Amino acid sequence: MPATRPRPLSPHLQIYRPQLTSVLSIFHRATGLLLVPGTLLLSLWVILLALGEGSFSCISLFVEHLIGRLLLLAWLFSLYYHLCNGIRHLAWDLGYGYAIGVVYRSGFVVVVTALGLTLATAFWAQ
Prior knowledge:
The protein has helices at 20-51, 53-64, 66-93, 100-125. By secondary structure, the chain is mainly α. It has one domain (20-125): 3 helical TM bundles of succinate and fumarate reductases, CATH 1.20.1300.10. Helix 1 (20-51) runs antiparallel to helix 2 and helix 3 (66-93) packs antiparallel against helix 4. The longest helix is centred in the N-terminal third of the chain and has 32 residues, at 20-51. The mean pLDDT is 90.
């Protein structure tokens, strides 16, 4: 029996170049997963607001800190990205936007729109 050479797995990670479509798909799933704990924390924040000023001030200090603001901004971007990409998926479900050029353009539109909405909300909240 001849000796077999070990072959790389396909696609080999050293030569594989991620495509925009695969990156956006993975990012859509990741933002969906990140929205769950963020929404739970946001719900806790609202519940503490309903319980009174003493309990709310404790979590309010964290949100006013730089790390808290960055986490809130990341959650907000995840929300807007997931929303915009969900609308894109609805268009695909209706049969629109399957041409490869349209897929790439709509991907860029989703990212730019999510960034724009995030920045607009961040500036509005200040």
